[in-house]
Amino acid sequence: MADQIWIGIILITALVLFVVDRWRYDFVAMGALFAAYIAGLVPRQEVFSGFGNAAVITVAAVLVISHALWRSGVVDSMASSVKKVGDRVWLQMIVLTGLTTFVSAFISNTGAMAIMIPVALHLSRNGAGHASLMLMPMAFGSLLGGTITMIGTPPNIIISDIRASHGAEPFGIFDFTPVGLSVAVAGLLLMWLTAHFLVPRSKSRDTSHSPYDVSAYLTELYLPEGASLVGDTLFEFESKIKENFAVIALKRGKQLITAPPRYQRLKAEDVLIVEADAETLQQILDITRFELNAEEKLDPRFLVSDEIKVIEGIVGHDSRLIGRSASDLRLRHRFGVNVLAVAREGQPLKPTLANVRFKPGDVLLLQGDAEVLNDVFNRFGCFPLAQRSMRLGSKRKLMLPLAIFAGAIALSAFNILSVPVAFTMAAGAMVLANVIPIRELYEHIEWPIIVLLAATLPLGDALERSGAADTLAHAALMVSEGAPDFVALSVLLVVTMLLSNVINNAAAAVLMAPIGISMAETLGTSMDPFLMAVAIGAALPFLTPIGHQSNILVMGPGGYRFADYWRLGLPLSVGMSVVAVTMISLTWPMYG
């Protein structure tokens, strides 16, 4: 009983820290693992056993293959054809969500969204606006797509490995398809019918003609010597601009005047901190002689080409920028990149741009050499939004990664090779064929996810070994006592789904799978339907932006607030729970 109490305390503490999000989740998971070891819940020889687990290796290989497909232009070639669908917003949404769902069945959800977000914003500009109407359904579509195959999302890979560790064959790559495809199709149909009414739309996007209109930027504008505005009041300056914008503060030397009065006269070398969208910002620069305030001109050593660009990008969920400011990172000094503006939807930003600490979903406006900017985005875990040429490449370069990927799927589907071996070999083949340079082999593996998995797998074993999984399973079965068995299945799926909205979905799968297996043993049924319920529940966090990287990626460009997600996410969660439980019961019988 003492072991159950200790593992309960450790896991509850870890869950609280996951939700609070003060420390990164891989650090929290490792701390929980060490605490379990000190408490005697994890044997010495098993502390680091997770790093050699087949599920962890498979996830790493799938991430490498996803990046190789992304880099080769395979997905870009499909995305470019989407631009031919016309100007009808509902048709654009159907095509974009359908394509994103399909692609996410085979590559990383985040990789698919990184390609499709710029396409959606481009279509929004050329069509009737409403980027926000498309982006949230696309993010949810990427989650639905992940349920279709074993490699679509890490929870499926984990569940397959857990099944193998309990004396059965691991799930095959398409064993998830009957349930996952049914859920994906039903989810798409529900979104196509209801998104128009349930997805909040930002009015600023309805009328915008900006190529990539995002929420208002916090921007510093510098007034040079000789500018015509020198000596004018703020009221006279504001009267020249037709669109609405806000002057947040005025910097004059070392003095910072917040909310300056409209009769304040401007002086040479003043810096105004303004909040404006991309279109209004461009209008200010065109009409006045204000300049975007970079700390100083780019050093000539960074001018490796004549192609100096201004590019927008989203701060990813696992970005190295999170919690740090432009002044901390010294981006201009180290890389020759200027941070010109920061946009964050729904939250006021500090008036000093250099001291703004970045958060997931922030949209940055960066200036620098185009190639250097691409390197900075890759290094710091950001996703570019600026218009860029598609990486279409030659037909051979497109077909080669597809052939390698299809070979890995075929070898694993026909049980010629196990999934971990087939996909690790495919990742190696991508490198040998120069689809992905060897220097990038490890750069695009999400190491925090790998560490999280490796740390939580022994914790899942400890939960089962201590008897806590049995205790929780009995508690769940008491809720459904006297009801049909599918009610217990529903309880497990719903609890897993709720948990995955506040912690990483891979961790949710690891923690809930032992409870599902204990429920099956108590009822005397097969463990397969319960494992499938955990897999589906963990893969579909629709209620919050923090539930998955795809959700956080669209928050800034779509102009969503935290509370906007549940409006479409709640009916989608309820509907998918009903479909999933029905299909699991039909496909994976409780008995036999």
From TrEMBL:
Compartment annotation: Membrane
RCK C-terminal domain ranges (all copies): 205-290, 298-383
One GO MF term attached to the UniProt entry: monoatomic cation transmembrane transporter activity
Keyword Kinase set for record: no
Topology of the protein relative to the lipid bilayer: Multi-pass membrane protein
GO cellular component entries: plasma membrane
Cited SUPFAM superfamilies: TrkA C-terminal domain-like
Alphabetized InterPro entries for the sequence: Cit_transptr-like_dom (IPR004680), DASS-Related_Transporters (IPR051679), RCK_C (IPR006037), RCK_C_sf (IPR036721)
Residue spans crossing the bilayer: 5-21, 27-43, 50-70, 90-121, 133-159, 179-199, 398-423, 486-517, 529-548, 568-591
Pfam entry (one): CitMHS
GO biological process, one term: potassium ion transport
Gene3D superfamilies in alphabetical order: Regulator of K+ conductance, C-terminal domain
Claim: Oxidoreductase is one of the keywords in the record: no
Keyword vocabulary terms for this entry: Membrane, Repeat, Transmembrane, Transmembrane helix, Transport
Protein name (database record): SLC13 family permease
Species of origin: Pseudidiomarina halophila
